[in-house]
Amino acid sequence: MPHNPITLDILRALKAIDRHGSFAAAAEALNKVPSALTYTIQKVEQDLNLALFDRSGHKAQMTDAAKLLLREGQKILDQLDMLATNAKQVADGWEVVFTVVFDTTIDIAQLFPVIKEFQDVAPFVRVKLKEESLSGSWESIQNNHANLLIAPRIGLPLDTDHLETKEIGDMEFTLAVAQNHPLTTYPQPVAHQELSKFPVVVIPDSTTKTQTMSAGLSHQERHFYVPGMTEKIKAQVAGLGIGYLPKFRIQNELENGSLVEIQTADNRTSQGKLLLAWRKDNNGKALEWFIKRLSSKSLIE
Fold it and tell me: Domain HTH lysR-type, which positions (predicted)?
Protein backbone atom coordinates (compact mmCIF):
# COMPACT_ATOMS: atom_id res chain seq x y z
CA MET A 1 0.00 0.00 0.00
CA PRO A 2 1.21 3.59 -0.59
CA HIS A 3 3.27 5.22 2.14
CA ASN A 4 1.16 7.39 4.45
CA PRO A 5 3.18 10.36 5.70
CA ILE A 6 0.73 11.04 8.54
CA THR A 7 2.29 9.45 11.61
CA LEU A 8 1.65 9.66 15.33
CA ASP A 9 4.68 11.96 15.59
CA ILE A 10 3.04 14.36 13.13
CA LEU A 11 -0.23 14.34 15.07
CA ARG A 12 1.62 14.97 18.33
CA ALA A 13 3.61 17.77 16.67
CA LEU A 14 0.45 19.52 15.46
CA LYS A 15 -1.09 19.14 18.90
CA ALA A 16 1.99 20.64 20.54
CA ILE A 17 2.11 23.58 18.11
CA ASP A 18 -1.57 24.29 18.69
CA ARG A 19 -1.21 24.06 22.47
CA HIS A 20 2.00 26.05 22.86
CA GLY A 21 1.46 28.61 20.11
CA SER A 22 4.78 28.42 18.27
CA PHE A 23 7.21 26.00 16.64
CA ALA A 24 9.90 26.87 19.18
CA ALA A 25 7.73 26.26 22.24
CA ALA A 26 6.31 23.08 20.72
CA ALA A 27 9.80 21.77 19.91
CA GLU A 28 10.88 22.36 23.50
CA ALA A 29 7.80 20.51 24.82
CA LEU A 30 8.58 17.60 22.47
CA ASN A 31 12.30 17.61 23.38
CA LYS A 32 13.25 18.46 19.80
CA VAL A 33 15.29 21.25 18.28
CA PRO A 34 13.10 23.71 16.31
CA SER A 35 14.80 22.90 13.03
CA ALA A 36 13.94 19.21 13.38
CA LEU A 37 10.27 20.01 14.03
CA THR A 38 10.20 22.41 11.09
CA TYR A 39 11.73 19.79 8.81
CA THR A 40 9.17 17.17 9.94
CA ILE A 41 6.25 19.48 9.10
CA GLN A 42 7.72 20.54 5.76
CA LYS A 43 8.36 16.92 4.80
CA VAL A 44 4.71 16.03 5.41
CA GLU A 45 3.56 19.07 3.44
CA GLN A 46 5.77 17.95 0.56
CA ASP A 47 4.57 14.34 0.69
CA LEU A 48 0.90 15.36 0.84
CA ASN A 49 1.36 18.21 -1.64
CA LEU A 50 -0.54 20.65 0.58
CA ALA A 51 0.24 23.39 3.07
CA LEU A 52 -0.33 22.78 6.75
CA PHE A 53 0.70 26.31 7.70
CA ASP A 54 0.16 29.70 6.13
CA ARG A 55 3.51 31.45 6.42
CA SER A 56 2.53 34.68 4.66
CA GLY A 57 2.17 36.65 7.87
CA HIS A 58 4.45 37.43 10.77
CA LYS A 59 3.44 34.18 12.45
CA ALA A 60 2.67 30.84 10.77
CA GLN A 61 -1.01 29.94 11.06
CA MET A 62 -2.58 26.52 10.67
CA THR A 63 -4.50 25.99 7.46
CA ASP A 64 -7.88 24.30 7.35
CA ALA A 65 -6.13 21.10 6.32
CA ALA A 66 -3.94 21.21 9.42
CA LYS A 67 -6.95 21.93 11.63
CA LEU A 68 -8.67 18.87 10.18
CA LEU A 69 -5.63 16.69 10.92
CA LEU A 70 -5.45 18.15 14.41
CA ARG A 71 -9.14 17.53 15.13
CA GLU A 72 -9.32 14.00 13.72
CA GLY A 73 -5.82 13.15 14.90
CA GLN A 74 -6.81 13.97 18.49
CA LYS A 75 -9.41 11.20 18.30
CA ILE A 76 -6.70 8.76 17.24
CA LEU A 77 -4.40 9.87 20.06
CA ASP A 78 -7.25 9.53 22.56
CA GLN A 79 -8.00 6.02 21.29
CA LEU A 80 -4.34 5.06 21.63
CA ASP A 81 -4.30 6.35 25.19
CA MET A 82 -7.46 4.36 25.92
CA LEU A 83 -5.94 1.26 24.31
CA ALA A 84 -2.90 1.54 26.54
CA THR A 85 -5.12 2.03 29.60
CA ASN A 86 -7.30 -0.94 28.69
CA ALA A 87 -4.27 -3.17 28.16
CA LYS A 88 -2.95 -2.22 31.61
CA GLN A 89 -6.33 -2.77 33.27
CA VAL A 90 -6.77 -6.17 31.61
CA ALA A 91 -3.32 -7.13 32.83
CA ASP A 92 -4.47 -6.04 36.32
CA GLY A 93 -7.53 -8.32 36.13
CA TRP A 94 -10.29 -6.00 34.88
CA GLU A 95 -12.66 -7.01 32.08
CA VAL A 96 -12.71 -4.83 28.96
CA VAL A 97 -16.45 -5.44 28.49
CA PHE A 98 -18.76 -6.52 31.31
CA THR A 99 -22.19 -7.86 30.35
CA VAL A 100 -25.00 -8.01 32.89
CA VAL A 101 -28.08 -10.00 31.89
CA PHE A 102 -31.15 -9.29 34.01
CA ASP A 103 -34.42 -11.14 33.98
CA THR A 104 -37.39 -9.12 32.79
CA THR A 105 -38.89 -9.23 36.30
CA ILE A 106 -36.19 -6.72 37.34
CA ASP A 107 -36.75 -3.01 36.77
CA ILE A 108 -33.76 -1.81 34.74
CA ALA A 109 -33.98 1.60 36.45
CA GLN A 110 -32.92 -0.09 39.71
CA LEU A 111 -29.61 -0.97 38.05
CA PHE A 112 -28.74 2.52 36.85
CA PRO A 113 -27.43 3.87 40.21
CA VAL A 114 -25.21 0.80 40.52
CA ILE A 115 -23.87 1.26 36.98
CA LYS A 116 -23.16 4.94 37.75
CA GLU A 117 -21.15 3.97 40.83
CA PHE A 118 -19.20 1.44 38.79
CA GLN A 119 -18.42 4.02 36.09
CA ASP A 120 -16.83 6.18 38.76
CA VAL A 121 -14.71 3.23 39.91
CA ALA A 122 -13.76 1.72 36.53
CA PRO A 123 -14.60 4.10 33.65
CA PHE A 124 -12.43 2.07 31.29
CA VAL A 125 -14.77 -0.96 31.47
CA ARG A 126 -17.65 -0.95 28.98
CA VAL A 127 -20.85 -2.17 30.63
CA LYS A 128 -23.62 -3.82 28.63
CA LEU A 129 -27.11 -4.55 29.95
CA LYS A 130 -29.33 -7.15 28.32
CA GLU A 131 -32.87 -8.20 29.23
CA GLU A 132 -33.99 -11.84 28.97
CA SER A 133 -36.87 -13.92 30.35
CA LEU A 134 -37.38 -17.29 32.05
CA SER A 135 -34.93 -19.98 30.87
CA GLY A 136 -33.50 -17.54 28.32
CA SER A 137 -31.96 -15.64 31.23
CA TRP A 138 -30.14 -18.73 32.49
CA GLU A 139 -29.19 -19.76 28.98
CA SER A 140 -27.16 -16.56 28.62
CA ILE A 141 -24.92 -17.36 31.57
CA GLN A 142 -24.67 -21.05 30.67
CA ASN A 143 -23.50 -20.18 27.16
CA ASN A 144 -21.01 -17.62 28.47
CA HIS A 145 -22.86 -14.72 26.85
CA ALA A 146 -22.90 -12.79 30.12
CA ASN A 147 -20.51 -12.12 32.98
CA LEU A 148 -23.28 -11.83 35.55
CA LEU A 149 -26.95 -12.83 35.68
CA ILE A 150 -29.67 -11.37 37.90
CA ALA A 151 -32.73 -13.61 37.80
CA PRO A 152 -35.32 -15.43 39.90
CA ARG A 153 -34.59 -19.04 40.78
CA ILE A 154 -37.33 -20.12 38.36
CA GLY A 155 -35.67 -21.38 35.20
CA LEU A 156 -32.51 -22.44 37.05
CA PRO A 157 -31.05 -25.28 34.95
CA LEU A 158 -30.43 -28.71 36.42
CA ASP A 159 -26.76 -28.65 35.42
CA THR A 160 -25.24 -25.89 37.57
CA ASP A 161 -21.85 -27.44 38.32
CA HIS A 162 -20.15 -24.69 36.33
CA LEU A 163 -22.11 -21.88 38.03
CA GLU A 164 -21.95 -20.01 41.30
CA THR A 165 -25.15 -18.50 42.68
CA LYS A 166 -25.98 -16.16 45.54
CA GLU A 167 -29.38 -15.22 46.94
CA ILE A 168 -29.93 -11.47 47.19
CA GLY A 169 -33.63 -11.21 48.00
CA ASP A 170 -37.13 -12.67 48.14
CA MET A 171 -39.66 -12.08 45.39
CA GLU A 172 -43.44 -12.21 45.69
CA PHE A 173 -45.78 -12.46 42.71
CA THR A 174 -49.45 -11.59 43.02
CA LEU A 175 -52.45 -11.92 40.70
CA ALA A 176 -53.48 -8.39 39.67
CA VAL A 177 -56.01 -6.93 37.24
CA ALA A 178 -57.14 -3.49 36.07
CA GLN A 179 -59.41 -1.53 38.41
CA ASN A 180 -62.42 -1.98 36.09
CA HIS A 181 -61.79 -5.64 35.28
CA PRO A 182 -64.78 -7.99 35.77
CA LEU A 183 -62.80 -10.07 38.29
CA THR A 184 -62.91 -7.16 40.75
CA THR A 185 -66.68 -7.70 41.05
CA TYR A 186 -66.40 -11.41 41.79
CA PRO A 187 -66.72 -12.56 45.40
CA GLN A 188 -63.28 -13.11 46.89
CA PRO A 189 -61.58 -15.51 46.85
CA VAL A 190 -62.16 -16.28 43.16
CA ALA A 191 -62.43 -19.91 42.10
CA HIS A 192 -59.48 -20.88 39.93
CA GLN A 193 -61.70 -22.09 37.07
CA GLU A 194 -63.16 -18.60 36.79
CA LEU A 195 -59.76 -17.27 35.72
CA SER A 196 -59.91 -19.29 32.50
CA LYS A 197 -62.63 -16.97 31.20
CA PHE A 198 -60.12 -14.18 30.68
CA PRO A 199 -57.04 -13.73 28.48
CA VAL A 200 -53.66 -13.94 30.17
CA VAL A 201 -50.86 -11.47 29.48
CA VAL A 202 -47.77 -13.58 28.77
CA ILE A 203 -44.06 -12.86 28.41
CA PRO A 204 -42.55 -15.51 26.09
CA ASP A 205 -39.45 -17.41 27.13
CA SER A 206 -36.47 -15.76 25.40
CA THR A 207 -34.53 -19.01 25.09
CA THR A 208 -33.20 -19.93 21.65
CA LYS A 209 -33.92 -23.61 22.30
CA THR A 210 -37.01 -25.34 20.97
CA GLN A 211 -38.16 -26.36 24.45
CA THR A 212 -39.43 -23.35 26.38
CA MET A 213 -40.81 -22.95 29.86
CA SER A 214 -43.86 -21.12 31.16
CA ALA A 215 -44.91 -19.59 34.46
CA GLY A 216 -48.01 -18.25 36.18
CA LEU A 217 -51.24 -18.67 34.20
CA SER A 218 -49.62 -19.14 30.80
CA HIS A 219 -51.05 -22.68 30.55
CA GLN A 220 -54.48 -21.16 29.87
CA GLU A 221 -55.80 -21.00 26.32
CA ARG A 222 -56.23 -17.28 25.64
CA HIS A 223 -52.96 -15.38 25.53
CA PHE A 224 -51.85 -11.83 24.82
CA TYR A 225 -48.10 -11.70 24.30
CA VAL A 226 -45.82 -8.81 25.30
CA PRO A 227 -42.02 -8.53 25.13
CA GLY A 228 -41.24 -7.85 28.79
CA MET A 229 -42.43 -7.13 32.33
CA THR A 230 -42.77 -3.37 31.82
CA GLU A 231 -45.17 -3.99 28.92
CA LYS A 232 -46.98 -6.73 30.86
CA ILE A 233 -47.73 -4.33 33.71
CA LYS A 234 -48.98 -1.67 31.30
CA ALA A 235 -51.12 -4.21 29.44
CA GLN A 236 -52.77 -5.37 32.64
CA VAL A 237 -53.38 -1.78 33.77
CA ALA A 238 -55.07 -1.27 30.38
CA GLY A 239 -57.33 -4.27 31.04
CA LEU A 240 -55.94 -6.44 28.25
CA GLY A 241 -55.63 -9.49 30.44
CA ILE A 242 -54.76 -10.96 33.81
CA GLY A 243 -51.61 -12.46 35.23
CA TYR A 244 -49.18 -12.68 38.10
CA LEU A 245 -46.90 -9.69 38.59
CA PRO A 246 -43.90 -9.10 40.88
CA LYS A 247 -45.36 -7.16 43.78
CA PHE A 248 -42.35 -4.86 44.15
CA ARG A 249 -42.88 -3.67 40.56
CA ILE A 250 -46.53 -2.64 41.05
CA GLN A 251 -46.61 -0.93 44.45
CA ASN A 252 -47.57 2.42 42.91
CA GLU A 253 -50.33 0.86 40.80
CA LEU A 254 -51.75 -0.97 43.81
CA GLU A 255 -51.68 2.21 45.89
CA ASN A 256 -53.35 4.40 43.26
CA GLY A 257 -55.90 1.71 42.41
CA SER A 258 -55.01 1.21 38.75
CA LEU A 259 -54.27 -2.42 39.63
CA VAL A 260 -56.22 -4.56 42.10
CA GLU A 261 -55.01 -7.75 43.76
CA ILE A 262 -57.23 -10.78 43.29
CA GLN A 263 -57.41 -13.49 45.93
CA THR A 264 -57.88 -17.02 44.57
CA ALA A 265 -59.58 -19.95 46.23
CA ASP A 266 -56.33 -21.86 46.44
CA ASN A 267 -54.72 -18.72 47.95
CA ARG A 268 -52.09 -19.01 45.29
CA THR A 269 -49.20 -16.60 45.45
CA SER A 270 -45.73 -17.17 44.14
CA GLN A 271 -42.67 -16.76 46.31
CA GLY A 272 -39.17 -17.05 44.95
CA LYS A 273 -35.57 -16.14 45.48
CA LEU A 274 -33.72 -13.54 43.44
CA LEU A 275 -30.26 -14.79 42.53
CA LEU A 276 -26.97 -13.58 41.22
CA ALA A 277 -25.26 -16.17 39.02
CA TRP A 278 -21.88 -16.31 37.36
CA ARG A 279 -19.55 -18.89 35.87
CA LYS A 280 -16.90 -20.41 38.10
CA ASP A 281 -14.25 -19.75 35.46
CA ASN A 282 -14.96 -15.99 35.58
CA ASN A 283 -12.98 -14.17 38.26
CA GLY A 284 -12.52 -10.63 36.95
CA LYS A 285 -12.44 -7.55 39.16
CA ALA A 286 -15.63 -6.10 37.66
CA LEU A 287 -17.49 -9.29 38.54
CA GLU A 288 -16.12 -9.12 42.08
CA TRP A 289 -17.25 -5.48 42.38
CA PHE A 290 -20.79 -6.14 41.10
CA ILE A 291 -21.32 -9.18 43.32
CA LYS A 292 -20.31 -7.21 46.39
CA ARG A 293 -22.37 -4.16 45.46
CA LEU A 294 -25.54 -5.99 44.42
CA SER A 295 -25.36 -8.10 47.57
CA SER A 296 -25.77 -4.91 49.60
CA LYS A 297 -28.42 -3.16 47.46
CA SER A 298 -32.00 -4.34 47.13
CA LEU A 299 -33.27 -4.48 43.56
CA ILE A 300 -36.77 -5.42 44.66
CA GLU A 301 -37.75 -2.44 46.80
Answer: 6-63
* pLDDT tens string 144-181: 999 999 999 876 766 778 899 999 988 889 999 999 99
Listed in sequence order, the residues at least 6 apart from 4 whose beta carbon sits closer than 8 Å to its beta carbon are: none
Q: Give the CATH number of domain 8-91.
A: 1.10.10.10
Do the domains 170-271 and 97-169+273-296 match in fold? Answer: yes
Say whether pTM exceeds 0.85.
Answer: no
pLDDT digits (tens, 9 = 90+) for 79-114: 888 888 778 877 888 998 999 999 999 999 999 999
The CATH label, of 3.30.420.10, 2.10.70.10, 3.40.50.300, 3.40.190.10, for the domain at 97-169+273-296 is 3.40.190.10
| 43: helix, strand or coil | helix
What is Dmax (Cα atoms) for the chain? 95
CA-nearest of 239, 228, 266, 97 to 178 is 239
Residue 100's nearest CA partner among 143, 132, 146 is 146
User: Average pLDDT over the chain, rounded to whole?
Assistant: 88
